[in-house]
Amino acid sequence: MDLKIQIISLIFSFLYGIFLFIIFKLEYKCIFLLKKKYQIICNFIYCIVFSLLYFFLLLFINNGSLHLYFLLLIIFGFLLSYQLSKKIV
Questions:
Q1: What average pLDDT values come out for the chain (89 residues) when binned by 10 residues?
Q2: Can you say whether the dihedral through the CA atoms of 33, 37, 39, 42 is positive or negative?
């Protein structure tokens, strides 16, 4: 994998972490309207769908090559969004 594809993959992973945080906040507000059994099912579906979405998008960017630092950037984007949302609200 050349440097250009790695940089695009890193930026994509970071932005996907921010996207996951936004979707998580929306899902978190809606999920409390459901019963406990449906909450578990919805969380499971949420995890599966967004994991598959990330992998399929990564498939188009760099042929599906998944490295540890991509996952770390997703987590970093998620945590950075969390910290910024706490300061804004």
A1: 91 96 88 84 91 94 91 95 87
A2: negative
